[in-house]
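Customer ticket, subject: "Can you confirm the structure for Putative racemase?"

Message body: Hello, I'm evaluating your service for our small team and ran a test protein. I'd like someone to confirm that this is what the system normally returns, since I don't have a reference to compare against.
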Amino acid sequence: MEQDFYTSRLENQGIEVVVPDPDDRKVVHDVIYNELCLGVIKKQSQQKYAQIVDKLISSGVEGIILGCTEICMLIGDIKFSVPVFDTTAIHAKAAVDFSLS
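Agent reply: Thanks for trying us out. I re-ran your input and got the following:
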């Protein structure tokens, strides 16, 4: 989230980018590298992620980007009131579409 891989491209399209606050970014980072990258999925971490997403939604965001390949394993089937963009699935679909064209 500190990198501009997504943010600069979205901002160039006129989309305002909102990232979690520093404490929430630390939670996201710790869960990714200390759990998800090791294949560990904890209910407590799912709840923390859901709280972070809910906080972002409450602040007015209109969509959530899952910008790390492992986050979709944690979010799973949790439903939110805004669209959730799983970049792993988006990239995979684009690769398939490209290969089949």
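A couple of notes from the result: Residues 65 and 85 are 5 Å apart (CA to CA). The radius of gyration is 14 Å. Feel free to reply with more questions.
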